[in-house]
Amino acid sequence: MAKELTKEDVWTVEDSEKLYRVALWGESYFYVNEEGHLAVRPILGDSIGIDVYKVVQDLRQQRIQFPLLIRFQDLLRSRVTELNTAFRKAIEESGYGNSYIGVYPIKVNQLHEVVQEILEAGRPFGFGLESGSKAELVAALPHLEDDRTLLICNGYKDWTMMRLLLIGQLLGKNVIPILEKFSELRLLLTQAAELGVRPKFGARVRVSVTGSGKWAASGGDSSKFGITISELVRLIDEVSLNGVADGFKLLHFHMGSQILDIQNLKQAVKEIARIYATLRKRGLEIEYLNVGGGLGVNYEAGEVTSPHGINYTLPEYVNAIVYTVKEVCDAENVPHPVLVSESGRALTAHHSVLIVEVIAANARENVDEPLPPGAIEHPQVAELAKLFNSLADKSVRRKSLPVLLETFHDAAEKRQDIGLLFELGYLSLEQKAAAERLYWSICTTINRMMQKRNPELLPKDLVAMKEQLTDQYLCDFSVFQSILDYWAIGQVFPIMPIHRLKEQPSRLATLVDLTCDSDGKVDRFVSPLGSKNALEVHRLVEGEPYYLGFFLMGAYQDILGDIHNLFGRVTEVHVYADAEEPDNYFIEKVIKGTTVQEILAVVQYFPNDLQRRMEQLIQQKVKDGLIRPKIGVQLLDQYSKAFHEYTYLGPDDGI
User: Fold this and answer.
1) In whole angstroms, what is the distance from residue 607 CA to residue 600 CA?
2) What pLDDT is stored for residue 230 in this prediction?
3) Distance CA 105, CA 109 (A)
4) Residue from 288, 213, 191 nearest 258 by CA
5) DSSP secondary-structure letter at 27?
6) Euclidean distance between CA atoms 326 and 321, whole angstroms
7) What is the pLDDT of residue 507?
8) Pairing verdict, β 201-204 and 174-179
9) What is d(CA 217, CA 191) in angstroms, rounded to the nearest whole number?
10) Radius of gyration of the chain (CA)
């Protein structure tokens, strides 16, 4: 007879939302729906929801292979709107005397669909672009359909880049090269003279304030880019001497792509605003004040003590900029500049979700299946079985942590005694195996009973026990291709199951990928304490796929991917919300992932040569009589077909 569940026993979708901290990293966009599936509201201010698991089921029915990246394109529009609305509100409320223009730094995600979506969403706000390399500049220039659209070019520049930028100005476009070092001024002036252009330009200044965490080196004296204050003075003298001081239109600083502490930002903005005011008083008609990028994303779900946590909200970030610049300008009695920011991470991170299928589990023993006859005849093993059965007693379930701690200590003692008895030859191998299964099942049950408790209040022995319960879940993806920042800089991403969220997770797991590399694993996860070394997951059910979602993938991860083990780009699916469609969405585009043939070409292997070599090998074996000619033809055919396969595991692949 099944045990009747009490109200305390029932696992709810609210419990899953709390466990995986969805409301913190997902902001207003992601949530768990009534069916126990992860869902997204991609349109700002609209309640329309898309069930992520249903999208995955739809894609599976279309025989689209995993892993894959789902792009909720409406989220890009929502983030652009949210950022611009926040600045407009702060400008209006503060009485700021000018406007705000955002530019999207395409280095964050250069994919054409992403750039186009952001530009289209930003058109009502005059949104522009920022490039930082020759290739990015070539991609960005033709997208300046409106002459007023601002294009900023950061990074070191050569002859070709500077000439392209000035050609943009010659065409009447609002293109501003940012001088990153003093020597670039000479390049600018020479090229402008040759083209007959009166140049516009800006300068990036190294402010004294540094950031914190992984991006601290982007600001301060050790910054890779920007000119010093003394070089700025020399630059002003030089442009005045050459009669082009009126072209100095923009002042810029940058503290990194993820500002963690709002106080650092305020100090840096105050410093650059003071420099701006000083230059205005000297007669330089600077129009734009560019505060750089760095609007943060809550990768670690609001934990400000973690290496990648932020301690502010979007309104606070915006207010820090608007009110600080206004205060300095008013005190110095200079005009308020047009404010510019380069928020790329905050615009793109949320829209992209990596969906990974779990292929297999290397799990701890359990007693889901009956123990062999006679396995618990030995008194010590029987004691373990008694401890395990006691955990099903409802009166015990209502008792305090000390009771669970005592049960664990008793189980650990019995296990130690049983190990000694086995070493002395008093227990059979079957009895030892049964004891192991019982011990780990006791631990798993205790851990499940602790899940709703505050982890900060758990006894250290139970915390240590929890860490020992970790399974390994083999996932069909590559850490190096899809979440390179996790491996490279230790950035933690929100990861959780996208279904079965009405069911209490009973396992703890680290995630291992397909690569032949010990670093190809994920063993740090978002937690209330900053990070944890295992993820709460459900037991795999044979014949049923189990999917995990990796979130906040849209910034940098698409571009940084490495081809370790020749695993290529994953399949990409573009999804839009539409209340008129079944399940509130439609799939606009599927971009197939890299094939074996495509990834081999990157490392200079080509089908014609490889097939010729393979054919020679097979013909030699046929000639030697080791295989029949018909078999040789079949083998070559199978080999040739592999060139067109996805680089990840196919639906019929074995492990």
Assistant:
1) 9
2) 92
3) 8
4) 213
5) T
6) 9
7) 87
8) parallel
9) 32
10) 30
Other CB atoms within 10 Å distance of the CB of residue 299 = 25
Residues 6+ apart with CB under 8 A from 541: none
**Which H/E stretch holds residue 24?**
helix 22-25
Residue 543 contacts residue 564 (beta carbons within 8 Å): no
Calculate the CA 623 to chain-centre distance: 54
Q: d(Cα 315, Cα 85) in Å, to the nearest integer?
A: 10
Output DSSP code: residue 310: -
Angle at 102 between CA 105 and CA 214, to 5 degrees: 45
Taken as a whole, the chain contains a residue count of 655
Question: CATH number of 365-465: 1.10.820.10, 1.20.58.930, 1.10.260.40, 1.10.1510.10?
Answer: 1.20.58.930
Q: Evaluate whether 70 touches 60 at the Cβ level (below 8 Å).
A: no
Residue 293: partners with Cβ closer than 8 Å, 6 or more residues away: 105, 254, 256, 257, 341, 342, 343, 344, 345
How far is the CA of 233 from the CAs of 23, 149, 279, 614, in angstroms? 48, 30, 10, 67
SS3 195: helix
Six token digits for residue 175: 């293109």
Q: Phi then psi for 316, rounded to 5 degrees?
A: -65, -40
Tokens in use for 565? 């083990």
* CA dist list (Å): 75 to 42, 49, 547, 577: 5, 12, 22, 10
- Kindly give the residue spans of alpha helices, DSSP state H, lying in 196-261: 229-241
User: φ, ψ for residue 355 (rounded to 5)?
Assistant: -105, 125
Domain spanning 1-73+352-361+469-593: which CATH class is it, in words?
mainly beta
Helix axes 379-390, 429-450, angle to 10 degrees: 20
Q: How far apart are CA 437 and CA 443, in angstroms?
A: 10
Cβ atoms of 315 and 86 closer than 8 Å: yes
The yes or no reply on domain 98-343 and CATH 3.30.420.10 is: no
pLDDT score, position 652 = 61
Task: Supply the pLDDT for residue 1.
Answer: 30
Rounded Cα distance between 25 and 495, Å, is: 10
The DSSP secondary structure of 160-184, one letter per residue, reads HHHHHHHHHHHTT-EEEEEE-STTH
Closest by alpha carbon to 432, among 387, 392, 372, 472? 372
Percent of the chain exceeding pLDDT 70 equals 91
* CA distance to 149, 596, 612, 614, per residue, from 640 (Å): 49, 11, 10, 9
- Dig out the tokens for 383 from the structure: 């004691």
Question: What's the rounded Cα separation, in Å, for the pair 416 and 422?
Answer: 10
Kindly state the percentage of the chain with pLDDT values over 90: 66
**Position 373 pLDDT exceeds 90:** no
The set of residues, in sequence order, having a beta carbon less than 8 Å from that of 176 and lying 6+ positions away, is 150, 151, 152, 153, 200, 201, 202, 249, 250, 288
Higher local confidence (pLDDT), 466 or 488: 488
| pLDDT recorded at residue 196 | 92
Q: What's the distance, CA 382 to chain centroid?
A: 48
For 204-214, the pLDDT digits (tens) are 999 887 655 56
Over residues 521-572, the pLDDT tens digits come to 999 898 766 668 889 999 999 999 999 999 999 999 988 888 889 899 999 9
**83: pLDDT confidence band, cut at 50, 70 and 90?**
very high
Classify 576 as helix, strand or coil: strand
Q: Check: CB of residue 418 under 8 Å from CB of residue 365.
A: no
Distance of CA 643 to the CA centre of its chain: 30
**Sign of the CA dihedral 152, 157, 159, 160?**
negative
